């Protein structure tokens, strides 16, 4: 996946789109990463599993791979979208002051700059940073949005703007292989109710369409919830 595709999924409002991208990541120790591979940048994205572990996602521009690693409680290392990270003792626990501030829809790097870390909030969500040009001479801008330029026939057509960081609000269930939506015991009890005959009925798949359970819609109506209309 190129970086644009990764970010489009991670910063999507729909959890299934987010999970689709997360599940394409690999744990950092599963990669053979060279120490001189410096095109590793943070996605700005972090999430928490049902066990309380915090993860962050980084992107390798060279291999177009999504890297997952534990946040390790080291919140002095900023989770800033586009910030360059460096390998240290098998993990990316070191970073530079180089930041990518835009890409195009092919995933190619657009503009880059130097981050001024003064007054940077490293614990809460990062809303803006001061960017210098690569010669570190003058302030280029107050950087508050990551830019994705969409190009067609070498002409800029539209622009997407993303926040500089995102912590996923939803808790994620990890079964050791894949990441899924976490369902609490309370939610499960609401979605699975036993009927008078002791059957467990679920109302999650079709959202309790017209009051019918998922099992009844599948068995009696061949999985077509709209067929329940005008049925007593």
Task: Put the structure in a nutshell.
The chain has 232 residues and is mainly beta.
- The total beta strand count reads 17
How much strand content do the residues show? Answer: 35-45%
Give the oligomeric state of the chains in this entry, treating copies of one chain as homo and distinct chains as hetero.
single chain
Count of helix runs: 4
Strand order of the largest sheet: 1-4-3-2-13
Structural class: mainly beta
Q: Radius of gyration, Cα only, in angstroms? A: 22 Å
Distance between the amino and carboxyl termini: 50 Å
Total number of distinct structural domains:
2
Which stretches are poorly predicted, pLDDT < 50 over at least 5 residues?
none
Question: What is the N-to-C succession of helices and strands?
Answer: HHEEEEEEEEEEEEEEEHEEH
The share of residues in helices is 10-25%
Quick one: overall form? elongated
Q: Report the sheet with the most strands, covering strand number, pairing sense and barrel closure.
A: 5 strands, mixed
Round the mean pLDDT to the nearest integer and report it.
79
Secondary structure layout plus pairing:
Layout lengths: L2 H8 L4 H8 L3 E2 L12 E9 L5 E7 L4 E6 L12 E6 L2 E10 L1 E3 L7 E5 L12 E4 L6 E5 L2 E7 L2 E8 L3 E2 L4 E3 L4 E3 L3 H7 E3 L5 E3 L11 H7 L12
Parallel strand pairs: 1-4, 2-13, 7-11
Antiparallel strand pairs: 2-3, 3-4, 5-6, 6-8, 8-9, 9-10, 11-12, 14-15, 16-17
What does this structure look like?
This protein has two domains: 3-179, no CATH class; 183-228, no CATH class. The model has no long low-confidence stretch (mean pLDDT 79). With 232 residues, the chain is mainly beta. The chain has helices at 3-10, 15-22, 185-191, 214-220; strands at residues 26-27, 40-48, 54-60, 65-70, 83-88, 91-100, 102-104, 112-116, 129-132, 139-143, 146-152, 155-162, 166-167, 172-174, 179-181, 192-194, 200-202.
